[in-house]
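Final report, Chapter 2: Outcomes

The project's central promise was a pipeline that accepts a single protein chain and returns its three-dimensional structure in a standardized token representation, suitable for archiving and comparison. That pipeline is now operational. To close this chapter, we reproduce one record exactly as it appears in the project archive, with the input sequence first and the structure output second.
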Amino acid sequence: MPIPSLSEKDLEAYRNDLSKPEKSTGELFIKLNGLYQRFASNEQLLADFEYVSALTSLENSYASKKEHFNKEIIELKRQFKQLDNRIVAAEQKLRHGIPEDLLVMDKIIAEQESIVEDQEKLNNAETHIVEQVRKIDIEHGKELQKLEQQQNNREIPFKSKFSAFNQQIKNAEKEITLKVSGFSLLAIIGIPLIIDLFFGMIGLPTFAKNTNNIIFNHYIFLISLILVELFFADKIRNRISRILSISYLKDSLNTLGNLLTENERQLAKVESEHHITLSEFLKKNGDALNY
């Protein structure tokens, strides 16, 4: 089953998800990757639409040109047949010998000269048509080859493009995970340290006076650290993760939105150039292309 294409509604739904605190960053990254995979379907549709529409226009143009020259060939054959009839008629006039009437003889000679002249014109016209048809066939072959080459050239960047998007998202998630670990560690240690310093400044007594034992001197830090780790560490990590992730996810969503807008602009361009709507294209080719 083909992956459904991306729409503005999908982007809006994801934008709403970014504003929901209950959505985990891991879930949001997975969904973003899914949106890019769906956009790949949009790009594949555009590529197929461009190729098939260009091919159809090319074939229609070729058929139109061939039809034009086929009509000329039919007309040329008709004129050749008329010329053959004139030749037969001229030969019949001379079947019983050269006429004695000079006026009749002059007419026969004039007709023969006219036949020769017309035959030369028809031969030249036939040569011209054959040459034009040959040029059309060669030009059509080159255009087909060019179109196929463009399609092949597009396949490689197309695949690498979305592979790069996928890898970029994975790298960003790993980088953010490392930053979350670092910032969370600073926060989890920093909060107890601040509490310890605060109580030290107000002169809170230690378990034992005049002791050099670091544990007894900083028992408030240790207690605070344990409490923070037990009750607040996960919230701190999630909060930092969300702050760092949302910024990247919003930027990626905006990038995806721009790509979708450009995709839609290109679709409209193809519709205008080849005089076919996307819905008509899908109606004719959707089953064959698995849409």
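Archive annotation: Residues 206-211 have pLDDT under 50 and may be disordered.
This record, like all others produced under the grant, will remain available to the consortium after the project formally closes.
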